[in-house]
Structure prediction request, 70 residues.
Amino acid sequence: MSTTPDPTHWIKAARSSATGSCVEMRLHQAAVEVRDTKQHGQGPTLRLHPVGFSTWVTGAKSGELDHLAH
Prediction:
């Protein structure tokens, strides 16, 4: 039995809030898809190339995007 999650299923970060103010992601057809959990699968989905997604995550972790949260 594998303990690695299936990347094609939608996942949320372990640190996401209990109020649903988070996003969920999955790998689908060679792209990373991101959507708002509050839309319950009915809203738009952002599709990113894996390199672009990695760049976005790196920028978020380094604080490069903090000015957008104000």
